[in-house]
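TASK: fixed-backbone design
INPUT:
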């Protein structure tokens, strides 16, 4: 496969503390690579350790393919890292938000501050069915999805949190362990949907959050 572009980044991670502390930058890192080919093919490689990864591939003539090795985060574990990934993207766009801290308000998983301004974040994972359950049980998992099925997974995650929607809260769709949902072809399909379909849920904004800024995008 001939690739038109190749992007590799060593990405810092946020080390999570207890709920009364903020996230802080750690010395550990991960290698994330994204490839785009001239024929529309795409690949994402997220290597966290020698025995842990999250991969995704797309070929225009085939389904989306994805695989993970390791174990999925449970419950609220990892939420500060997801918040930090969103904040990094926002700050690259001109924001000056501080590190995320655990939220203590209803419907808020974590928040960030910029002076007197506060960014409230609700986080929910995106996954196909029992994918993460299988990952935790076997230590590895893989699957395939049509582009429209991937879009349906994302919309299902949004609807799942509809009861907590608020114009003061940002919904962060966690795709840090499922980079297949951040692929260009999936984002293009999402953006072909009427804008009102996502905006009607009533969030301040909806962001699809990948493991690093180039994999993070605003949906509404």
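OUTPUT:
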């Amino acid at each position: 496969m001939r690739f038109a572009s190749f992007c590799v980044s060593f990405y810092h991670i946020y080390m999570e503390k207890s709920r009364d502390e903020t996230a802080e930058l750690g010395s550990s890192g991960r290698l994330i690579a994204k490839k785009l080919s001239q024929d529309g093919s795409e690949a994402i490689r997220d290597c966290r350790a020698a025995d842990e990864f999250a991969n995704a591939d797309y070929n225009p003539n085939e389904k989306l393919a994805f695989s993970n090795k390791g174990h999925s985060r449970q419950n609220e574990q990892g939420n500060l890292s997801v918040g930090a990934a969103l904040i990094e993207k926002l700050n690259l766009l001109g924001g000056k938000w501080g590190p995320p801290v655990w939220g203590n308000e209803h419907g808020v998983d974590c928040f960030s501050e910029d002076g007197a301004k506060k960014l409230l974040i609700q986080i929910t994972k995106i996954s196909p069915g029992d994918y993460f359950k299988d990952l935790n049980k076997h230590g590895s998992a893989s699957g395939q999805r049509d582009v429209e099925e991937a879009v349906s997974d994302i919309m299902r995650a949004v609807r799942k949190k509809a009861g907590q929607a608020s114009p003061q809260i940002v919904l962060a769709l966690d795709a840090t362990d499922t980079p297949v949902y951040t692929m260009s072809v999936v984002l293009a399909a999402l953006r072909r949907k009427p804008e009102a379909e996502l905006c009607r849920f009533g969030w301040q904004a909806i962001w699809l959050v990948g493991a690093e800024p180039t994999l993070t995008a605003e949906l509404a």
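COMMENT: The CA atoms of residues 43 and 57 lie 4 Å apart.
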